Amino acid sequence: MSAETDPTEYENNIPKEIAALQDAILEHDNDRIRLLLTNELLDEVQKSHLVELAKSKGTPSIVKLLENTPSTP
Fold first, then answer.
1. Which residues make Cβ contacts (< 8 Å) with residue 40, sequence separation at least 6?
2. Average pLDDT over residues 37-51
3. Is the pLDDT of residue 5 over 60?
4. Global pTM value
5. Looking at beta carbons, which pairs linking 38-46 to residues 24 or more positions away fall under 8 Å?
6. CA distance 2 to 7
7. Greatest CA separation found in the chain?
C-alpha cells in the first residue's frame, strides 16, 4: 500500500505539533491549545485546517483563538 492510500502512513507524516493541536481541538481543551500555539508557527493551510476542524466541532472560542493566531503564507 502506498502512502497515498494507507491512512496510517499519512498520519505518521503529520507533524506532531499539528496532531497535538488537532487532539486538543477534539477534546475542547482551550488551555492546551494556547500552550501549544505559544511555540508553534502555523502556515495558512495548517491554520485553515485547524479552524475548519474547530468549526465542525462547534467550539467558537477555539475558532476565535485559532483565527487570531499569526501564520505564514
1. 17, 21
2. 91
3. no
4. 0.78
5. 41/70, 41/71, 41/72, 42/18, 42/69, 42/71, 42/72, 43/71, 43/72, 43/73, 44/71, 44/72, 44/73, 46/18, 46/71
6. 9
7. 39
Residue-wise pLDDT tens digits, 53-62: 999 999 999 9
* Cell numbers that stand for 48 in this block: 485553515
Q: How far apart are CA 30 and CA 7, in angstroms?
A: 28
Task: Name the one residue in this structure whose C-alpha cell is 500555539.
Answer: 37
Which three three-digit cell numbers place residue 2?
502506498
Average pLDDT over residues 42-71: 94
